[in-house]
Specification:
Blueprint (H helix, E strand, L loop, with lengths): L4 E6 L6 E5 L1 E6 L2 E6 L5 E5 L2 E6 L5 E6 L2 E6 L2 E6 L2 E3 L5 H16 L7 H18 L5
Parallel strand pairs: 1-9
Antiparallel strand pairs: 1-2, 3-4, 3-6, 5-8, 6-7, 7-10, 8-9
Length: 137
């Protein structure tokens, strides 16, 4: 069996999540990246997306994040997220409505619409839906 890595996911006003994993996939600014035991140290930014954690039994756990930072060490992944939510906790209907609202704002923007904010809202809603539906990479 391969060596395990510790995973910590932190966000303001949330309890720190601590897990052990075989592998972690994260949504980095430059693309999705995978971390296994012995990974080269790295500090990177995260974008809205899904953090996929493969636990020691090979089960996949999905967490929606709205972005943040990840610090990678050979035996640890520390995620400092703006926010995170377990896929099992996502209200799928609410996330779907948020996605539809964001798409509408982007398709037919009002003069006062902040396009960057609307785009970010869309990415967050999509991440929540993917985590809820257990969609991996």
């Amino acid at each position: 069996m391969s060596e395990m890595i510790r995973v910590e996911i932190c966000a303001p006003e949330k309890l720190k999540l601590e897990l052990e994993a075989q592998e972690v996939l994260c949504p980095g600014e430059d693309g999705i990246f995978s971390v296994r035991y012995g990974h080269t140290p790295l500090l990177t930014t995260l974008v809205p997306g899904v953090i996929l954690v493969k636990d020691k039994a090979g089960e996949e756990q999905f967490y929606a994040t709205s972005g943040g930072f990840a610090e990678i060490e050979p035996d640890k992944v520390l995620v400092l997220a703006d926010s995170y939510e377990a896929g099992t906790d996502v209200d799928e209907e609410r996330a779907k409505q948020a996605e539809e609202r964001a798409q509408m704002r982007l398709r037919k923007p009002e003069p006062e619409t902040d396009m960057k904010r609307a785009e970010l809202a869309l990415y967050k809603a999509m991440a929540r839906l993917k985590a809820a539906r257990r969609v991996g990479y």
